[in-house]
Write a structure and sequence with these properties.
single chain; six-stranded antiparallel β-sheet; alpha+beta; 40 helices
Length: 1368
């Protein structure tokens, strides 16, 4: 048997209860009106304390009934009760004192079982049920039994599921007013009356549960039990999982209560519904309660703020007859525990960091560093740390209750040590804060905190935390603004002054409750203890430092005294040793036996003898080389007679001797000034000069010998180096006289100090004695124009101290004889080199250099420059000639084409009239005589034939003009190719339209010579869904025209006359193995030369367009194919005689395809025809370019869709060369008037007539000055003429078109012209790209090259007008 130890019987029950961490209270069983005692754990939990004492006044509360019930203490169900999420146990002492203690460590399942047990036993006891019901009180499944209802009604009330009707007769059927449909709580739930009222006000009929009377009995019973429970519990009922909860859970809903009543689980837990549903599914399959879960939850309060909570929950199924009807979710609030864990971890980490501080300054830094590193940052959304400096002025003591606190805040200053969440320069945290009574920032609050022993609470609502200081802060944690903050004074001990002030923003999502206060209090204690240890450690370090300094001072004083005593004793010896050690002469003393008793370091260093004392004569002689040992022995013998001897000998340097030879300072001659190179290998031998002096004793014998040794190795080397230098100087002098360049030495003032014969010859001077005559050659021999450059070079030489070069012209002439025997005379050019010569102090005294004759190179360079200028001038003249020829040929061609178009239009109209007359004559045949009818019919047929022939002749004229234009284009292209001026300019176009334009150009000629000309678009093109591509249309069409020209030329005389064009496309480069032709290898220097954006396209945007032109002509032999694609070369010598041509077409086509990253090839056999194929690289356009191209296409389509025009009818049958004159209204409404500026009267007249016919007004000007005058009479100035567009010729007399365009743009900029920008189209025969770019740079919107056709002009006008309108 174990007996209690001594003294334990003296412990009272109150002492046990005081130390018990569980909430505990005591009730007197005889008078159970209220508790007579509550321990500190219960008193600290104010909410629980008030709730217990409030329940004591309610006699029917189940909890209080359980406490005061007279039951056996040994009965287990009676000893436990779950109230307010706490499991309570009851103990009865001496049948009088009832001790009730709370325990919150039970699991949810245990709690639920306890609650169910209590509910059943309590219900049974109150309803006087039999023992059978009591025996099932521990069965968890019996919670669904309708007989075990917790909430029973007061006497005289009806249950909600009572089947009897209400006999009062004043119910109106409203679920909220009818007593039958209201939830009536039992009398022991009177404290939940307000919550029950909320339940009764809910429109349950609009929820999946329906009206209250229709609720299943099991749901009503379960809901009664949940309402009676003090824990937060939720019921999810039915398939819709409709939410029901008790009053405790409504506090977690915050502002969402009571809207969540009757809602689904998705509305109750929007962030966790999936997890809840998963738990429901798990518990249903297992038929038992699910595992516990925990999450963090934010309660939305009515004021819009959110409160952080941690909830632990589980899911319990509600089953009946093995069918799950719903779920119960009991919830336990674990917020205090989780927050305590988080805050304790922060305090532990903070303490571990702060104890490592060695002084107060590092303590502040570590404190703010650890606060910043603390994770999570929810409890530290804001932190400001100030250190309090010492008092500047003392004043009266504080009126604090503690007499030890006599410090005053007057004159104290705070220095900012760090902050978190505060931007630099914010008003809430100035760098320094004077606590002198001012109200700057939080100085008043800091001043008050200095007097307090506890943290000072600041709140926004009471004004202690000014809201004006909270703007612009970078809140940490939840990033919500803090509404409260505390200032913690930091002092080492309670009796000491405050050393720091820490302002902490409180968590905006947690109330400042007892737990928070306890956390702040523990934080203050942690800071106090760690700061105290740091202060003590700093004080201890300071004390140790003072002790160390005092000990060092005492030791220094002792050493000084000791040094003074020893200095006097060794002063004479030290003087001698210092002299002996510092002089570079080796000194030694020897005795009468020849042993060396003393030698300085220089002696040992010179001789290499070992440092032993004494050193025997044999030890010294071992250092002397073998050849000089006899000389040393003779010197000793001589010393016996004369007492003074001088000897020179050599010693062998030890292998470990790395001591360098010393240069004598101030010796004569100076090695430094001479600049001799003495760093050469000496063979390990030193040359030594020794002086010996002996002293005789009284007996006549030598007692002591003094020897002085000097290292003369450098002197020996200097003498040898001087001889070598002299020989070298003589050799250099001889080389300078034989050199082919002029060499000189000159003073800074230009005075010549020395020079070779070539220098005198170049300068044209005679050699003189420079020591007797002053000669300044540069002042006499350099031409005056080069003297400034020479002076600048010499100034740079002196300033930078670096070598300089300059090209100079001398006044002497350079003469040379060429290969033909002619004499060349030219100015003499020399390349002068200037090298500075400095003295030993680094100052430049003279300069030397050489003159290299570069007259021949200069003469050759001048000749090359002249040839280049002549070639450039010749090229310019050639281009001017080509431009003039092109201009003069294109001008009449434009008139020819337009006149031919006009003739075709008139003849076509006449042809229609003749056909009309012929039809009328046929219809009137019955009125006229038959002979007359026949005559008229014959005349009409003849007239129609004549008109048809005339139209064919006009078409032939146009074809010839087009052929003439192609020749001019080929000449211009060849000129650009020769000069490498031809570039590819990609634009966004429709490739099919470009091919069709080339096709249409040859339709008339093909029809005239009876050739079947067809065009086919391959399926590979359509499969790529291509509408627009970026390419150069002019270069593409030029290649197609050249190939079609050759195809028609060589096919028109054959028996079978077929020419076809096939167009295809692919994303990969075509190869010979998949093509019908063999491509000519591309030149490496002719790759893509585009200057547009297409040249930078990515590989996935590349499209390779391929064209095949196939004919049935005579074909080519292998020899003829080998000579194709060369300049001025045709298939054979008979080709030009029979077919004509220049031999440039295929050569140009090859170059143009290669410049577009493509190739061209041919496949042909004699008598089988030929196939010419080529491909080019194009690119998919950007979205912006695609939209612009589509807009331009729509504008062209508007022109081509002109209804009932003769041109439409004729073009469908005869091609573009049969274009008739344009009809009225061909131009859009945006072009009302056109100013035509043209000096050629024929072109002026034709263009004006066609524009008038197209439906717009026309005003004509002969040159630029007249155009500016006419401009003043338009609606853009003060006139009436509706100006919409200007057609500007470039080459005009008086004032050209480009000058006129620039002046028009200047008038627009200065505001002297009204309206938007005037579109200007340059019309010129100058077709080179640089001329087109020059026109656009001058202000032209576009350029139209002559010759052109009227519909081409109208199309260009419509496009420019539309683009100008879009840009405006």
């Amino acid at each position: 048997m174990m007996y209690p130890p001594m003294g334990i019987s003296d412990v009272g029950i109150l002492e046990v209860l005081e130390s018990d961490p569980r909430p505990t209270f005591v009730v007197v069983s005889t008078e159970p009106s209220q508790p007579i005692y509550a321990n500190p754990a219960l008193r600290e939990n104010a909410t629980l304390h008030d709730r217990v004492f409030d329940l004591s006044h309610s006699r029917h509360a189940p909890f209080w009934d359980w406490i005061t019930a007279s039951r056996s203490p040994s009965s287990r169900p009676d000893r436990m009760f779950l109230f307010d999420t706490t499991c309570w146990t009851r103990s009865i002492i001496r049948d009088k004192w009832i001790i009730v203690s709370g325990n919150d460590q039970l699991s949810l399942d245990d709690e639920l079982s306890g609650v169910s047990s209590h509910i059943r036993s309590y219900s049974t006891s109150n309803n006087n049920n039999n023992n059978d019901n009591n025996s099932n009180s521990h069965n968890h499944t019996n919670i669904n039994n309708n007989n075990n209802n917790l909430l029973h009604e007061s006497p005289g009330t009806k249950l909600p599921n009572d089947d009897d009707d209400d006999d009062d007769g004043d119910g109106d059927g409203d679920g909220h007013n009818n007593d039958d449909e209201c939830w009536i709580p039992p009398d022991f739930m009177k404290d939940q009356g307000s919550f029950v009222h909320v339940i009764n006000t809910v429109d349950w009929a609009g929820t999946p549960l329906g009206p209250l009377p229709r609720w299943p009995p099991l749901l009503q019973q379960t809901f009664n039990q949940v309402l009676a429970d003090s824990r937060p519990i939720v019921i999810y009922w039915g398939e819709k999982q409709t939410t029901l909860y008790n009053e405790a859970f409504s506090k977690l809903c915050g502002s969402k209560h009571p809207a969540l009543l009757g809602k689904s689980v998705e509305d109750a837990w929007p962030d966790f519904c999936e997890k809840i549903k998963l738990a429901m599914s798990s518990t249903t399959s297992k038929h038992r309660p699910g595992d516990e879960h925990e999450w963090r939850f934010f309660v939305e309060k009515t004021d819009g703020s959110r409160e952080e909570k941690y909830l632990k929950w589980s899911i319990i199924p509600i089953t009946e007859k093995n069918r799950c009807l719903g779920f119960i979710q009991p919830i336990q609030d674990t917020t205090s525990m989780r927050l305590w864990e988080r805050r304790c971890k922060m305090l532990i980490d903070l303490g571990d960091m702060l104890v490592t501080a060695r002084d107060v300054k590092s303590y502040w830094a570590k404190l703010i560093q650890e606060l910043e590193a603390c994770q999570p940052t929810y409890d530290i959304p804001l932190a400001i740390l100030y250190s309090v400096e010492k008092e500047i002025q003392l004043s009266s003591s504080s009126s604090s209750s503690s007499s030890s606190l006599s410090s005053s805040t007057t004159g104290k200053a705070c220095r900012l040590e760090g902050c978190l969440g505060v931007p630099v320069g914010h008003l809430i945290a100035p760098p320094t804060l004077q606590l002198d009574g001012t109200s700057r920032g939080l100085s008043l609050s800091f001043r008050e905190a200095l007097k307090s022993q506890n943290p000072l609470l600041l709140q926004v609502r009471d004004g202690t935390l000014p809201e004006s200081l909270l703007g612009g802060l970078r809140w940490r944690g939840f990033e919500d603004p803090c509404r409260e903050a505390v200032i913690c004074p930091i002092r080492p001990t309670k009796d000491e002054h405050v050393l720091g002030l820490l302002l902490l923003g409180l968590n905006p999502r947690r109330p400042y409750d007892n737990d928070y206060r306890q956390y702040i209090s523990l934080l203050g204690q942690k800071l106090t203890t760690t700061l105290a240890s740091t202060v003590l450690l700093e004080e201890e370090a300071r004390r140790r430092r003072n002790i160390t300094e005092q000990a060092a001072y005492d030791q220094a004083m002792l050493k000084e005294k000791l040094a003074m005593q020893t200095r006097e004793a060794t002063e004479s010896v030290q003087k001698f040793q210092q002299i002996a050690e510092f002089i570079p002469v080796g000194m030694c003393f020897g005795n009468h036996r020849g042993n060396i008793t003393f030698a300085n370091d220089a002696w040992h260093r010179i001789t290499g003898a070992p440092q032993v004392n004494p050193l025997s004569p044999d030890g010294f002689l071992s250092c002397v080389i073998e050849e000089d040992k006899p000389n040393v022995q003779r010197a000793y013998e001589e010393l016996q007679r004369t007492l003074t001897v001088t000897i020179e000998f050599r010693v062998r340097r030890p292998a470990e001797d790395n001591y360098p030879l010393q240069y004598p300072i101030g010796s004569s001659p100076s090695f430094e000034k001479a600049g001799l190179d003495l760093d050469v290998d000496d063979g390990g031998v030193r040359h030594v000069l020794g002086s010996l002096k002996a002293e005789r004793g009284s007996d006549g014998n030598i007692n002591q010998v003094l020897a002085c040794l000097t290292d003369v190795t450098l002197h020996k080397k200097a003498a040898e180096e001087a001889i070598r230098k002299a020989q070298q100087a003589e050799n250099l002098k001889r080389m300078a006289e034989l050199a082919t360049v002029g060499m000189y030495d000159m003073a800074l003032d230009g005075r010549l100090l020395g020079a070779n014969n070539v220098f005198y010859e170049m300068c044209g001077l005679e050699r003189v004695d420079l020591s007797q005559t002053v000669v300044k050659p540069f002042e006499f021999c350099v031409v005056d124009e080069d003297m400034p450059a020479l002076r600048r070079t010499l100034v740079t030489l002196v300033e930078e101290g670096k070598s300089q070069t300059a090209e100079l012209r001398l006044k002497t002439q350079w003469t040379e004889t060429d290969t033909t025997g002619d004499q060349i005379v030219a100015p003499r050019w020399v390349l002068a080199t200037f090298m500075p010569v400095s003295n030993s102090e680094g100052a430049i005294q003279t300069f030397t250099g050489c003159l290299s004759d570069v007259s021949l190179q200069k003469w050759q360079f001048e000749k090359e420059r002249e040839r280049k200028d002549e070639a450039i001038e010749s090229k310019r003249q050639q281009e001017n000639f080509i431009d003039m020829t092109s201009h003069e040929m294109r001008n009449p061609l434009s008139a020819i084409v337009q006149c031919a178009d006009a003739v075709i239009g008139c003849l076509t109209k006449t042809q229609e009239l003749v056909e009309t007359q012929s039809s009328l004559s046929g219809s009137n045949g019955g009125v006229l005589n038959p002979p007359v009818v026949d005559t008229l019919r014959s005349i009409c047929q003849e007239s129609a034939q004549l008109l048809k022939d005339s139209i064919d002749n006009a078409e032939t004229i146009i074809a010839c003009a087009q052929h003439q234009k192609r020749i001019v284009d080929d000449i211009l292209t060849m000129s650009k190719l020769d000069s490498n001026l031809l570039s590819i300019t990609p634009i966004t176009v429709n490739p099919i339209l470009i091919a069709r334009e080339a096709f249409k150009m040859f339709e008339v000629e093909a029809r005239r010579v009876d050739i079947d000309l067809t065009m086919v678009v391959d399926r590979s093109y359509t499969e790529l869904n291509i509408e627009f591509l970026d390419l150069d249309p002019s270069r593409l069409k030029q290649v197609l025209i050249n190939l079609l020209t050759n195809a028609l030329k060589f096919t028109k005389n054959g028996p079978t006359r077929n020419v076809s064009i096939t167009m295809s496309a692919s994303k990969t480069r075509p190869e010979d193995r998949i093509s019908s032709v063999q491509f000519i290898p591309r030149a490496t220097d002719q790759l893509w030369q585009g200057d547009g954006p297409a040249s930078l396209a990515h590989g996935e945007n590349r499209i390779y367009l391929m064209f095949e032109v196939k004919d049935t002509g005579q074909g080519l032999t292998e020899e003829e194919k080998s000579s194709l694609f060369q300049r001025f070369v045709q298939a054979n010598s008979k080709t030009h005689v029979k077919y004509g041509g220049s031999g440039l077409g295929l050569f140009i086509s090859r170059r143009l395809t290669e410049m577009q990253n493509g190739a061209i090839g041919v496949a042909s056999s004699p008598g089988q025809g030929s196939t010419f194929a080529f491909y080019i690289e194009a690119h998919v356009p950007s979205d912006e370019a695609y939209q612009d191209a589509r807009a331009a296409a729509e504008a062209v389509g508007h022109i081509l869709r002109t209804p009932n025009s003769t041109a439409d009818k004729e073009s469908n049958s005869k091609g573009p060369f049969t274009m008739a004159k344009p009809t009225k209204k061909l131009l859009g409404p945006q072009i009302e008037g056109v100013l035509l500026v043209e000096d050629n009267l024929i072109n002026q007249q034709i263009t004006r007539r066609d524009l008038l016919t197209s439906g717009c007004a026309v005003e004509v000007a002969n040159h630029g000055v007249e155009a500016l005058e006419k401009l003043q009479h338009t609606n853009r100035a003060d006139g009436q003429f509706p100006l919409s567009l200007i057609l500007m010729d470039i080459e005009m007399p008086i004032q050209d078109g480009l000058t006129c365009t620039r002046k028009i743009r200047e008038l627009e900029k200065t505001g002297r012209l009204k309206g938007p920008r005037i579109p200007i189209i340059a019309v010129s025969a100058n077709a080179r790209m640089e001329q087109i770019l020059e026109a656009k740079a001058a202000g032209c919107d576009d350029v139209l090259v002559k010759p052109f056709r009227i519909l081409e002009l109208i199309e260009k006008m419509m496009i420019v007008a539309r683009q100008s309108k879009k840009a405006g």
